[in-house]
C-alpha cells in the first residue's frame, strides 16, 4: 500500500465513521484501547473523525502492565481522551459465583465485561461503539461473540492484518506498538498467532487466495483447516437465527 493510498484510505475511513455517527444521531465514538495494533489504528481514526468526541476506554482485567502503558502511549500520541475502568474485581467476583469451568470460558469473560463497559459509556454519552477487529480475524471468527464482536461500527473489518499494519505506519502509530507480537492479553504469554496456530502473514495470504478462488500455492492441509474454521465460526458473523411462524 503506497503512502498516497494509505492517506486516502485513512481519510475515507474517518469520514465514513463521522457519517455513521451523524446518521445514528449520536454525538461521538467510544472504543476500547488495549495498546495493540488494531485498537491503536482505530483510536487514531476515531480522533480524526470525531476530535474531542472520541473516547478511548482503557479496561484492564488482570492485564499486563505493558498493555496499559502502550494504550496510554497511543492515547497521548494522538491527544485522545481516555478513561480507565479497572475490571479486576468484577471479573474475580463473577468467577467466584459461577461454576468452575475451562480456561477459555474464563478468558472470554474479559471481552464480555469490556463490552458491557463500552456500552455503558456509549449509552450515557450517546456515542457509538467502534470495533477494532480486522478482516483476518473476522473471517476466521477470531473474536469473542457478544464480546469484542459486539459493536456498532467496524472501521477496519475489511482490512487484512497486513493492511492494518501499513495503515498504522502512515498514521504514525509508535513502532513499539507496530512491532510487538499481537496478543489479546487473555493470559500471560498469550499471542494471537500462538493461539490460532498460524502466522498472520500466512493466514492473510490464504484468505486472499480463497477470495480469488486460487489457493494452489498453499499446502492443502492448511487450506482445509482454514476453510473449516471459517465454516464453524459462521454463526459469529450472522444475526442470531429466528424461528419464523408460518402457516400453523
CATH superfamily: HUPs
Average of pLDDT: 95
- List the total number of helices: 12
Oligomer: single chain
- The ordered string of helix (H) and strand (E) elements is HEHEHEHHEHHHHHHH
Query: What is the CATH domain class?
Result: Alpha Beta
Helix/sheet category = alpha/beta
Number of strands: 4
Distance between the termini: 56 Å
Name the strands of the widest sheet in spatial order. 3-2-1-4
Q: What is the count of structural domains?
A: 1
Sequence stretches where pLDDT stays below 50 over 5 or more residues: none
- Please report which band the strand proportion falls in: under 5%, 5-15%, 15-25%, 25-35%, 35-45% or over 45%: 5-15%
The helix content, as a percent range, equals 55-70%
Walk me through what this model shows.
By secondary structure, the protein is α/β, with parallel strands linked by helices. It has a single domain (3-181), classed as Rossmann fold, CATH 3.40.50.620. The chain has twelve helices and four strands; from the N terminus they run H-E-H-E-H-E-H-H-E-H-H-H-H-H-H-H. The protein has a four-stranded parallel beta sheet, sandwiched between helices. The mean pLDDT is 95.
What's the topology here?
Elements: H1 3-23, E1 28-32, H2 37-50, E2 54-58, H3 65-78, E3 81-84, H4 88-97, H5 103-125, E4 127-129, H6 135-140, H7 161-171, H8 175-179, H9 192-196, H10 200-211, H11 220-232, H12 234-237
Parallel strand pairs: 1-2, 1-4, 2-3
Helix pairs in contact: 1-2, 1-7, 2-3, 2-7
